[in-house]
Known about the structure:
- The chain is an alpha+beta fold.
- The chain folds into 5 domains: 13-151, Orthogonal Prism (Agglutinin, subunit A); 153-293, Orthogonal Prism (Agglutinin, subunit A); 313-456, no CATH class; 504-596, Phosphorylase Kinase, domain 1, CATH 3.30.200.20; 603-790, Orthogonal Bundle (Transferase(Phosphotransferase), domain 1).
- The strands form 12 sheets. A 6-stranded antiparallel β-sheet has the order 31-33-32-35-29-36, with helices on one face. A 6-stranded mixed β-sheet has the order 37-41-42-40-39-38.
- The relative contact order is 0.05.
Amino acid sequence: MALSSQHVLLPLFFFLSANQVLPQTSNGRVSLGASLFATENSSSWLSQNGEFAFGFRKLRNQDDIFFLLCIWYVKIPDKTIIWCANGDKPAEARSNMVLTPEIGLALTTPLGEELWKSESVDESVANGVMSDEGNFVLEGSNSNKLWESFKNPTDTILPSQVLDMGQVLSSHQSKTNYSKGRFQFRLREDGNVVLNTVNLPSNYANEPYYATNISGESSNPMIATTHIVFNESGYLYVSRGNGEIFNLTQGRVVPTRNYYVRATISFDGIFTQYFHPRNFSSNVSWTPLWSIPDNICISTVVWAGIGVCGYNTICSLKEDKGPKCECLEGYSLINPDDSYGSCKPDFIQGCKEDEITSSGKDAYDIVELRNAGWPGSDYIRIASSTKETCKKSCLNDCLCAVAVLRGGTCWKKRFPLSNGRVDNSRPSIPLIKIRKGNSTILSNHPVTKVIKKNQSGLIRVTLGILSASVCVNFMFLGAICMGFFFIHKKKNERSHSPQEVPESNLRCFSYKELEEATDGFKDELGRGAFGIVYKGFVIQTNASTAVAVKKLSPVLRDGEREFKAELKSIGQTHHKNLVHLLGYCDDGQNRLLVYEFLCNGTLANFLFGDIKPSWNQRCELALGIAKGLLYLHEECYSQIIHCDIKPQNILLDEYNNAKISDFGLAKLLMMNQSRTHTSIRGTKGYVAPEWFRNMAITSKVDVYSFGVVLLEIVCCRRNVDMETGVEGGEILTDWAYDCFREGSLDVLVDYEVDALSDKKRFEIYVMVSLWCVQENPSLRPNMRRVVQMLEGVVEVSAPPCPSPF
Length: 805
């Protein structure tokens, strides 16, 4: 039998080896009968321009070597793979792929077992073509396309590729595992593009963690013909059969004649568009142009499955915006090779185990986290709770694995803990229950601290104190007396205890500390009505952190209680579109505020610089500012009216997310926000008319200012610019209404292609801005209504003339 097998396989081997070196024509065509072997240095089929190859790529899995049938970039050093046929079934060495007229492409093992084949075709295949665009095509006798890799995508889409309804980009399982992963990029039946997870091994799609808001359904039956198009210029957009185009590209677009461009959904669920120079002299790599979502840890909430990280984990963002998954303290990975997988407790927990443990609740310690949560794992809510009562409730409950204290409410959670993530915009105190004596607990876990100290340590400390000499005790008492003396001496000076601003996490700095942190207030970042801002560096968690220190203008009152009350209000505001206040200084006549430092400067510099931001970027900025104002007006601890909304007071973080600064300072500097007759807050061009009239000042003054800023964002023009002017010197809001009335809005954006291809949203944003700048405050919408209109949730009617006179 062995001799017979050798006689059969040897002729087959020589037949396939001969076919492997069959010549290709110069136009990238592949003849019938041509084949490729899975070997260390196997040949491949090249496109005519020599930029793409079709063939086998080696994949090492620990001690084993497998091969993938792939398409990749030839001229890039890392040979980036953009399509893969057999990711779920890697081929062993000497496997063979052959081009046949009946099947097309057929991949088999050395023993002839089928691993993969191209889809069935209606007619005989005449030849194959590796195109210059990166698409492998099976052609019929009339050069018609019978099958193509572009219509059977894996994780990447390339320029000139179109995704039809039902076609999906699926992530890989990991960087080295090319089998199908949990994340998808697809076009949904309602015409929206979504990112969602699936519960493997099924294809059941969970609710999306990112979705476009393509609204305005049409009665035109052609609207069902919808595609995702990645055109030759590098733009990614949705095209509908009725001619509507909805741009998906965010940020700038690079010329494809100079750069390779691709868009890929990564194994960790982030969809990113990359570029790579075609001509290069050094070892360059792919550079991201834009990606979605902005924060996958917070975006990905799956109620019937796991999020970006597995069960019993916490997701936080890395510097490259990718997710970092960590097991809870006292937990470890079920599969040590899968850092994004689920974790298991390294101790036994449950009601049965507690019954046989005589110590009961005393068998557990509590580990405290900061600003983390597990949506979907709640089973009990306890209102009006403190940290101590929340902790005791979890310790006394054998079902409780974690309790989270947020806003005075205790949420008790049980296994498995899903969708774990760090969310600094929602301050919380999670309390993790772990069994005592657990040898796997790490005392230097990056985000935790053990609340309950080891009792043996306390005993040692107590014995040390009791055994101290009488002399040492007298010295100790003397130190206490000295301390009381200095406290009494400084009783009229400002105290620097953070507890002076109750119910906040603000750090109290001395003036000397901030003087040293700013190197003598040397590096000025800007100045305005509220004071001067300097860049500095402070020590936080053993690391130097860049901060912005605002030296407040002299205040009219010395009331310490009022100052602390306003600081409390500001300190309790937490929103992703607000600049975070870190601390303060109240040292005699010196009052300073310490904010997070935002590296990308002001919205004014971003909008009115030499390079025009993309339409999508501008829309995201506008919506972020609106949401920040909505939080200040309706959702924070007590209402805050900003009084000076303008592009200079809106800062951008490293990802160009908009964050409102200087909120709350109007009240902090003796501003009566309910009514004024003498003091006008704000900046020329952004000030609401009621500041100049005998009218009450309400949150509608911010709505007016936002309307001006929104129009500046849409048009990338200043509202008042005496040097360049707008249409003969008219201010932008007046000119915009004239353009709206005359139906010539396209001139507002200088006929920008991206904005005009998103014409419905463009028109909505202009109309919203005109509603916001109505002279009559009662006609202006509140910020909740503004957000709803910008998101397309409610209809926007045609606005009247903002200034009827």
